[in-house]
Amino acid sequence: MKGFNYMIFPMLAGGILLTWGLALSSEGAHTQETGVATATLTLEEAIATAKTKFPGQVLETELENEDGQAVYEIEIASTNGVVTEIKVDAQTGELLSSDIEDHDDTEQEKSEEKDKD
């Protein structure tokens, strides 16, 4: 009977922590969806915008929430093998930035930052 009492506390603590973790994760997902829901640009339109400046084959796309702003991240491989990650504003279609990915999976920032005039 004494061994049973020692098992109840860890099980209760684990259950409470699990419930708390699930509540926090669903809360975070909800706030992320809010920013992504503001996207007015389609994925196809974002890809077309990115390909005008960076022609090549699209490798990966993702719609993300960055500080409350919906942003498409598009990876494009050029004909010479250079992979560039381009960020496009999902509301305005504006090209926000581009990063060239190195062979060792690190990124070099390229000066395509949005002018804040």
Describe the structure.
The protein has 2 helices and 5 strands. Helix content is 39%, strand content 32%. The chain has a 5-stranded antiparallel sheet. It has 117 residues and is of the alpha+beta class. The protein has a domain at 43-110: Nuclear Transport Factor 2, Chain: A (Roll), CATH 3.10.450.40. The longest helix has 35 residues, at 2-36. It is elongated and about 65 Å long. Strand 1 and strand 2 (69-77) form a beta hairpin.
Write down the overall geometry. elongated
Stretches where pLDDT falls below 50 for ≥5 residues? 26-32, 105-117
Chain-averaged pLDDT: 75
CATH topology of one domain: Nuclear Transport Factor 2, Chain: A
Total DSSP E strands: 5
Largest sheet: 5 strands, antiparallel
List keywords for this structure.
Nuclear Transport Factor 2, Chain: A; alpha+beta; disordered C terminus; 5-stranded antiparallel sheet
What's this model, at a glance?
This protein is of the alpha+beta class. Helix content is 39%, strand content 32%.
Topology, element by element:
Elements: H1 2-36, H2 43-53, E1 57-66, E2 69-77, E3 83-89, E4 95-101, E5 107-110
Antiparallel strand pairs: 1-2, 2-3, 3-4, 4-5
